[in-house]
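A reminder from the course coordinator: this example appears on the midterm review sheet, so study it carefully.

Given structure:
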């Protein structure tokens, strides 16, 4: 665990040192849970967004995109339920004066039981080697069974309290399980209270009677209120989807874990409109489609898992998360929800306008049902970074930090490095960049030894480096070096146009999802 935390700290400082993520307003000592993306971070983030957007809108003929405004009519948030129910249960520790989410304190304890079980399994697997039978061990080991029983009991009590919105019971669980404040170490807790997560501001001048509006806490509502616009103007037939990427804002109280939980973040959401009664079939289909999207990145199949919700939101009839193994455990990066006709029906009610679809095959009108896929760009970014980060011992006692980023997502695809700063080598390097820069991002670097330059590129995940040496001037060949294997080979300059895109192009990645 300490090792994992250590690794997470390294990842955060690496992100800063190499221009991926900076704390926002750092000059003024920062602003809680708000971050800026640096020169490499913005490229990685844009590539993630492109991967998602293209997979949605190119691979699915019936998914189209929009870009709706952040500010929306305030009644939208009444209709969506956010004004009344977008709350977190909060509890304060009276000694440290720190505020926590009561559900997170309990979930952390459940995760501790899980950790204990996993540690027992790891220990035993080491001891017994090939002969180890995980399933049998899980079913028979007394310590595992004891922790499993404690976990189950706590889990059931917690799920019931959450489902019933029972704040007193949440507090009682914290008391009964003797959960302490991580800062003061005491159990001196306040009551549990609900806290609305939406940010609000005012539109128009106060003298005129300003309207209180909200910064959207999800992009989804911009899609729902444009359902008819898109359906009619695009002559869309059900089933079809609307995709959107954009900023969302939540006044998170427990804002920690770097870009995992932010107050300003970005979402990539797709609402898929289907016939009533067909939603669970589509829910299953989108679950599989989205998992393939993640796994095509090659960060390791075991790093992802589904986690079905215990507590279904009042509007959902099925919901699951895709979780990724972060340095701080398996965590949600994407939610897939079957949202029934809740949102569209509610907007019908609040706006007083019909939001229906005439199905020519059924010869009747209905309010469509919705299956939603919703992923946070920043969490996805963190998963890619964490899944790619590696520290390696090299021959000769040297070490390197390497980001084994999926090549299509890497901020820089090719580094062009003249061996020396003279004899026409820099000019030759520039000439190569001028030829290739239209197809992918190249970076020129002539400073320091070639070894140091390789280390810098490894640290930002550049899949290819080429060195220009004196022979290049006569044979028009360069030495290409591969990030992951560090192998080098001599290739003609003309071959780069084929070699590099083979791995780095988004097209290759998309083809992989399409065939899997
Ligand atoms: N429209 C559904 C919706 O917003 P959600 O589970 O609240 O569902 C969807 O959010 C995704 O948005 C999450 O899986 C996560 O990736 C991302 N997300 C939510 N809150 C976030 C936060 N405070 N910081 C970063 N990402 C967040």
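Designed residues:
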């Amino acid at each position: 665990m300490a090792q994992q935390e250590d690794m997470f700290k390294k990842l955060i400082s690496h992100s800063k040192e190499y221009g991926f993520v900076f704390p926002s307003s750092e000059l003024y000592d920062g602003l809680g849970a708000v971050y800026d993306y640096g020169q490499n971070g913005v490229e990685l983030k844009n590539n993630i967004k492109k991967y998602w957007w293209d997979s949605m809108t190119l691979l699915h003929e019936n998914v189209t995109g929009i870009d709706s405004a952040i500010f929306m009519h305030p009644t939208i948030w009444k209709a969506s339920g956010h004004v009344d129910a977008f709350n977190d249960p909060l509890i304060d520790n009276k000694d440290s004066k720190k505020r926590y989410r009561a559900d997170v304190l309990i979930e952390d304890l459940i995760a501790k039981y899980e950790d204990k079980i996993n540690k027992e399994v790891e220990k035993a697997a080491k001891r017994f080697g090939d002969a180890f039978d995980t399933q049998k061990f899980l079913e028979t080991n007394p310590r595992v069974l004891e922790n499993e029983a404690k976990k189950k009991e706590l889990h059931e009590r917690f799920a019931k309290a959450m489902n019933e919105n029972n704040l007193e019971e949440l507090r009682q669980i914290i008391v009964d399980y003797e959960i302490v404040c991580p800062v003061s170490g005491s159990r001196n807790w306040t009551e549990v209270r609900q806290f609305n997560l939406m940010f609000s501001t005012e539109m128009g001048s106060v003298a005129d009677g300003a309207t209180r509006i909200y910064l959207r806490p999800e992009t989804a509502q911009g899609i729902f209120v444009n359902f008819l616009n898109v359906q009619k103007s695009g002559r869309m037939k059900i089933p079809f989807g609307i995709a959107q990427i954009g900023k969302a804002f939540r006044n998170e109280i427990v804002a920690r874990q770097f870009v995992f939980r932010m107050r300003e973040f970005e979402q990539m959401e797709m609402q898929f409109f289907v016939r009533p009664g067909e939603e669970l079939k589509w829910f299953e289909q989108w679950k599989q489609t989205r998992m393939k999207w993640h796994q095509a990145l090659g960060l390791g199949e075991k790093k992802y898992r589904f986690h079905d919700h215990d507590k279904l939101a009042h509007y959902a009839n099925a919901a699951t998360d895709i979780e990724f193994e972060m340095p701080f455990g398996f965590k949600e990066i994407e939610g897939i929800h079957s949202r029934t006709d809740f949102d569209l029906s509610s907007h019908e009610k609040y706006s007083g306008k019909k939001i229906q679809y005439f199905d020519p095959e059924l010869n009747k009108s209905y309010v469509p049902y919705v299956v939603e896929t919703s992923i946070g760009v920043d969490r996805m970014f963190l998963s890619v970074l964490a899944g790619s980060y590696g520290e390696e011992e090299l021959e000769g006692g040297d070490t390197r930090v390497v980001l084994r980023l999926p090549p299509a997502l890497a901020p820089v695809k090719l580094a062009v490095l003249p061996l020396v700063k003279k004899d026409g080598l820099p000019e030759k390097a520039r000439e190569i960049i001028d030829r290739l820069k239209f197809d992918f991002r190249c970076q020129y670097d002539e400073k320091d030894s070639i070894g140091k330059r390789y280390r810098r590129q490894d640290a930002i995940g550049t899949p290819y480096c080429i060195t220009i040496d004196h022979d290049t001037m006569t044979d028009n060949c360069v030495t290409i070096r591969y990030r992951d294997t560090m192998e080098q080979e001599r290739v003609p300059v003309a071959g780069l146009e084929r070699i590099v895109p083979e791995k780095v192009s988004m097209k290759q990645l998309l083809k992989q999802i399409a065939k899997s």
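The first strand starts at residue 21 and ends at 23. The radius of gyration is 26 Å.
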